[in-house]
TrEMBL record:
<feature type="transmembrane region" description="Helical">
    <location>
        <begin position="23"/>
        <end position="43"/>
    </location>
</feature>
<dbReference type="InterPro" id="IPR025489">
    <property type="entry name" value="DUF4381"/>
</dbReference>
<keyword id="KW-1133">Transmembrane helix</keyword>
<keyword id="KW-0472">Membrane</keyword>
<protein>
    <submittedName>
        <fullName>Uncharacterized protein DUF4381</fullName>
    </submittedName>
</protein>
<keyword id="KW-0812">Transmembrane</keyword>
<dbReference type="Pfam" id="PF14316">
    <property type="entry name" value="DUF4381"/>
</dbReference>
């Protein structure tokens, strides 16, 4: 169906092309690219900074079940101290575990090391300490939670 208009003035003008863009397009594009690069850099930096956490969690998950109860407690102590050394806290890592408990509990709100009982501090030094499977599971969960949640 063809439209016959009496006057060409009613005709629509030609479409405006999308290119070249407005003058502020290039600075905006440069800022957007810069923002993406900055975000990628920060994400990479954070990923590298938390590599020790991933390594400690991997060791805990792979080695915990293979050890006897005393060695399991020692493994948790070692991983906690390694994490403290990785975050440049050698003065905390050098403390005995009994003195370190309040600091560990402060970093971990829901799971508390002080609630584990006396076996957590005494098991590495007294292999005859009786531990139940429930205590060891709680120790595993608490250590895993602390590694994930403590701040660098």
């Amino acid at each position: 169906m063809e439209m016959n208009l009496p006057n060409k003035a009613y005709m629509l003008p030609d479409a405006i092309s999308n290119w070249p863009p407005v003058w502020w397009f290039w600075p905006l594009l440069a800022l957007l690219i810069l923002a993406v690069l900055c975000c990628a850099y920060l994400i990479r930096k954070r990923y590298k900074k938390s590599a020790y956490k991933r390594q400690a969690i991997g060791i805990l998950k792979s080695e915990f079940a293979k050890k006897n109860p005393t060695e399991q407690v020692i493994l948790c102590h070692e991983l906690i101290k390694r994490c403290l050394l990785s975050t440049n806290n050698p003065e905390l890592a050098s403390l005995p575990m009994k003195a370190l408990l309040p600091t560990l509990d402060e970093a971990c709100k829901s799971q508390k090391f002080s609630e584990l009982g006396d076996f957590f501090c005494s098991a590495p030094y007294n292999p005859k300490v009786e531990t139940t499977q429930e205590q060891l599971e709680t120790l595993y969960i608490t250590t895993l939670h602390w590694i994930r949640s403590h701040h660098d």
